[in-house]
Amino acid sequence: MSLLFKHLRVHQIFGANTDVGKTILTTALVRASAARGIPVHYLKPVSTGHISDADDKHIDYFVGDRKANVDTACLFRFDEPVSPHLAVRMAQGRRSHKMDPPTDDAFVNAVSSHIRECAMHHDSISHMYVETAGGVHSPTLSGTTQVDCYRPLFLPTVLIGDSHLGGISTTISSYESLVLRGYIIDMVLLFHDGYYRNWEYLKPYFADRGIHVLSFDAPHKRLADPDEENALMKAYYAKLVPENHHSAIYDALDHLDQCHARRLAELESMPKRTLDTIWWPFVQHGHVKGTPDVNVIDSASQDFFTVYNGQSSSTLTSPHEPPVSLLEPQFDGSASWWTQALGHARPELTLAAAHAAGRYGHVMFPQATHLPALRLAERLVHEGPGKGWAARAFFSDDGSTGMEVALKMALRVFSTRQGCDVDVKEQKKWGILGLKGSYHGDTIGAMDACEEGVYTCEWHEAKGIWLDPPTVANRKGSFIISLPPAIAELAGAGSDTVRVSSLQEAYAVESRIKSPLAQAYECFIEQTLKNLKENGGPTIAALVLEPLVMGAGGMIFVDPLFQRVLIDVVRRELGLPVIFDEVFAGLYRLGMRSSGPLLGVQPDISVHAKILTGGLVPLAVTLASDSIFRAFMSDKKIDALLHGHSYTAYPLGCEVANKTLDIVEKIAASNDWDQARVKWNASVANQTRESSVWSFWDPEFVDKVARLSIVSEVMALGTVLAIKIRDDAGGYQSHSAQKLLASIKYSEQNNSVSAAPGGSPFGINYRTLGDVAYFMSSLNTPVAVVRSIQDRIWVTLTCT
Amino acid sequence: MSLLFKHLRVHQIFGANTDVGKTILTTALVRASAARGIPVHYLKPVSTGHISDADDKHIDYFVGDRKANVDTACLFRFDEPVSPHLAVRMAQGRRSHKMDPPTDDAFVNAVSSHIRECAMHHDSISHMYVETAGGVHSPTLSGTTQVDCYRPLFLPTVLIGDSHLGGISTTISSYESLVLRGYIIDMVLLFHDGYYRNWEYLKPYFADRGIHVLSFDAPHKRLADPDEENALMKAYYAKLVPENHHSAIYDALDHLDQCHARRLAELESMPKRTLDTIWWPFVQHGHVKGTPDVNVIDSASQDFFTVYNGQSSSTLTSPHEPPVSLLEPQFDGSASWWTQALGHARPELTLAAAHAAGRYGHVMFPQATHLPALRLAERLVHEGPGKGWAARAFFSDDGSTGMEVALKMALRVFSTRQGCDVDVKEQKKWGILGLKGSYHGDTIGAMDACEEGVYTCEWHEAKGIWLDPPTVANRKGSFIISLPPAIAELAGAGSDTVRVSSLQEAYAVESRIKSPLAQAYECFIEQTLKNLKENGGPTIAALVLEPLVMGAGGMIFVDPLFQRVLIDVVRRELGLPVIFDEVFAGLYRLGMRSSGPLLGVQPDISVHAKILTGGLVPLAVTLASDSIFRAFMSDKKIDALLHGHSYTAYPLGCEVANKTLDIVEKIAASNDWDQARVKWNASVANQTRESSVWSFWDPEFVDKVARLSIVSEVMALGTVLAIKIRDDAGGYQSHSAQKLLASIKYSEQNNSVSAAPGGSPFGINYRTLGDVAYFMSSLNTPVAVVRSIQDRIWVTLTCT
């Protein structure tokens, strides 16, 4: 991940094209730094072309008489003057070169490690220039284009513009490709060309965009005679980088120094400024002790944030310790509140967002249509979680609003079924049937579908009844179903737990449906409904469930058999609409597209968000069956579903969702997950994949953690790992999990290469829900990363 | 705007750079179309370089023996082989050329008009190729780069890739610049280069992105002798476009034909598919008669949608009528539910979105910070609507959630002020004080802060009391304050209206504050509060207002004096927190940043959304004063504001908001609006700009419409024009406005050049609220567009 040192200022040099003067202007920068007596590192990670032309040799030769200040390096060198990805293949073809092209990860690790090594040597100002090869999108050794391959390093960028005819276009397009990857672009440098005068156009163009442009006299045309050429080039450099330290190239140095200083100052100022202005969600500001409590996120890539550690003690180096990067990777352990599934800042999603923004902006949706929304609706209804039961898609902005829409749908259906004699006062008190521990979002209507609790506000009115459900977990190495007392009694097992042989058995709903436990569940539910009716409880209008797991309620894994029986009984006895809140659990968070196939029943209404938009932007979709939709059809305008946010079905969100589903479904259809499935003894057959039960986390690890004395129970399903800490005063107000794991947030400074991009040591950003700590992977987190998180969790739990 | 004809297939040709073979491959396409006996139009809007080299001459010369089928044209021609923006200046410098460079609008109109003329001639298949100059971002005559300048035409695109060294990079970057503008890219064509083999890399790269790549043998190196050169080129073209109709260039034709056919088929299928899958917000599907009721939005630019009219009668041309474009502009008359302010699909906003997406994706916000959110919070609090009173910014997803947050804040403050003895049952019934006609969003909590009405659902419980407010409007040519009966009686005026001399007088709150009417207001409010207390009304916890105008309630312009007095009395008598719901009215929708300076009082809490994100993505911010924030501080976690959506403060949304505010504040600080201000006799002095009252709509027009017998009253403020139709059965259920204006939706097919980009005839997409029709401009809508909308409204109102 990104590296930032106080004393070593690092810039990467990208070119708008080949042959735009990248090496010459980089040489000038190196020479200017050296002329000022500053130690300079020049790194050309990949060099192609004859050794005599190689960029580091060029610099060695032309740096002037301050050579002692300059350190040049090249990590991969090829003779052929072609794109690196071809050079590798040509070299292999000739068999003169045995090496396989390095993977992007290995490449990034090599560059990162070189930079860190350079930083070790300096406790006063030094400069580093990392020169890329060709244009911004020229392929690297692996074939990935450079802007993408270098992205995890997130180095501040100098773009060398193109002064030729057409160069305005290539310079601006290259700039935009850098913008699309989020880079910080500090400066554009280019040659003067008296005829095309591109710099004249580009200076105000980039000034409008906050970017400084400097232009330089171009060198002569290359001469055939090497001695003459070298002599002329020496003279050229002597003029470009004069000994009197006054020229545009020194202005460039000053500007880069200022950018570096500003960046350091900005990062340092951010915690205080944040504490002065921001009101955080779900945070007790009274608990915030000061600036070190603010997690400054400078960028993100894959499953890692890059965070500023300038305030943490680990970077306050004594004179004897080597300087540590002020930015370090931090594993995004809660998948940024359960939204991430493909890694942060995926270029495909950025481009999808940009394409829709560029085509539509936002366009209003009532009685209108556009491709991104239509395609998303069609795929969710026909191929996605709505497959086989849904008929319509209704758009809103987040899981909470999606649930409000779902509730409005269900209430109307119930109302319609009551006929004309609905008492308007009575309907305000209609309730839903749900489970204890449910959470459906933060808006007051969604909250009213939950019990009163810590999350609820003054206006909250719990509308409904909530059953205490049996749960599944690994406790001390065995998978068990924990029964609430009332059910335990009915089950007559003489115990409040039922042991199952494996995770697979627990989730084999169809094979458990005739079991005595299923009968006990049925009996319990029937009795509850009967009691409710007899004792004048609220009129129940809908069944509302988070299938399989109740997230915010504390990662409670509900026995799926209980949910199945509940749905069956409610449908049979009351004929009520069933809402699945799949905001958290859906779209492969638990390793399966939706929970219907596993439960063996489908809802009438379902709500989808979070992963839906790949962890980039908010969007929710409420799916409904045709009979739900028809309850709103009439010839009266006011019978319509009069709900609609301004940005309903905004094209950018829909297009990002479409691209996310493309990627997610491709991952799900591949064999990538089969290794994990096999470990969990889950089916890898195509026909049962839809309900296959497995986890990205290792079964041995889960088992091992469950046996720890400080741990009460553990569950893993799909990307989710939940560890419940033994704590007599549990619940949301407990701080036990938070305290126990506190040290995991910090990186362990050691010399081993970590699994984070770039190999730097990393900490883990984690969230707790009272006594439950949870960790979440993406759908494509590398096994090595998962393992290293497991190792770190293990060390933290066992050494505290 | 975009043109699309059934028989004339049009493609624009962009190049990844100069000298990539754009003219050669375009010539080949033209020649291939002609060889198939298809009439071909070749348009080079701008040509630079010597006439003998000019692209149209090249095509004329090399098109083969089917010349009769080919029509070539060039709109602007310059001798100099430089970028068009320079060519114009050089030509002017030589005084050989008198013309001013055309504006982008004029340029787009010229191209559009040429295309429409070409389409006129064909009722069977024909092709058209529009060749741009240089690379995608080469500047056009005005200096705007081509991708941006051509964007309103939104023509399907062929990109000519670059086969040289570095060409992979320039091709991909050019592609990305096209993606950022939302273009449909049908194909990439490039030369074979045996050494660099770019096509080998680019074929799979673009296949992954759904784009077809074809490659072609490159021509020989240009010969010095023109005759030899011509002979060789003839032979080259004969091989590239053989008479047997079998070669890659014919495959390219087939592919472009398929793309065109697919696009037509897709547009035609969209209405039916939409009616099959989409559940629209705020739409009674029972009223939807069929596919013609679906507004298919193909793209958008400036203040216009481009909509498909293939189903409307106006395009069902008889054999004697010329073909009409299947796509036409439609003015976005409701600013897409009040979100637009800068025009659709602004590249600056797209790039801001892309930059944040590329740097962060989304990163979780509790106890974290990132630059886009921090900067947005700081500017809203310190320089924006929070200036002078706010201390904190809390993020959520839309106006409705922003209001739920505001209500939770206010309720807590009230609760805290009650001390320890708050009755938990009692607090559920606390109410707010508001105005009749209020609307604060669709979620149930926000709804509970409004009266029961057509919008409310089964669970709605009106919590509070709502006063009937006096309103401002132009009625029959005079500005009047309409008083509700109770106030009219107290005012003792003997009438329910008070005439004011002008809009300016109505909004001069400070000068009206001592008036008898102000005293009547005060008396009425005090009495109401007293009655409430005496008669055991709900406990009032907060004052909640939409300042100046209640939007969804029917564009009700409340007398600002009444709101001012109400705030003063409530603060004095009850000391309650005051919430401003500025979701609709804020951020210059009404010509001023916020309503506080005009009202002369500031709120304790305010909510901002809609314009905040420039009409691109959803985001809301709730601002709060320090004392509100402190009510949640404690050492208990559960005392925190436990509200937070997954994508809270997502970087993409925050960055788009930052860029929007940059642009909006720049417009507001410029003199662009002064002409309109002067017309309305509003102050143009810097010190009073913050509360200056004026409108983008002409005062004469407003006056004229107000005098129509079918019109009850009219108001215009800032971008908003509201026309209330005379209708005895008014309100939301009324269809009077909808019916009266129905014809305005359709374009008037005539030969005049319209004010829409490209000059095509356009319809107006408008929304009504019962008996009120409203129209909204952006903050930068050209005067010509506003005038043409006014003209159209006038004609529609007076001719029906």
Structure description:
Chains A, B: GO terms for molecular function: adenosylmethionine-8-amino-7-oxononanoate transaminase activity; dethiobiotin synthase activity; pyridoxal phosphate binding. Chains A, B: InterPro entries: Aminotrans_3, Aminotrans_3_PPA_site, P-loop_NTPase, PyrdxlP-dep_Trfase, PyrdxlP-dep_Trfase_major. The structure is a homodimer of 800-residue chains. By secondary structure, chain A is of the alpha/beta class. The first copy, chain A, has four domains: 8-265, Rossmann fold; 267-326, no CATH class; 347-672, Aspartate Aminotransferase, domain 2 (3-Layer(aba) Sandwich), CATH 3.40.640; 674-799, Aspartate Aminotransferase, domain 1 (Alpha-Beta Complex). The first copy, chain A, is built from 27 helices and 28 strands. In chain A, strands 3-2-4-1-5-6-7 form a seven-stranded parallel β-sheet, sandwiched between helices. In chain A, strand 6, helix 7 and strand 7 form a beta-alpha-beta unit. In chain A, helix 1 crosses helix 9 (248-277), helix 12 (371-383) packs parallel to helix 23 and helix 19 (516-534) crosses helix 20. The interface between A and B is large, with 176 and 176 residues. Strand 8 (295-301) of chain A pairs parallel with strand 11 (368-369) of chain B.
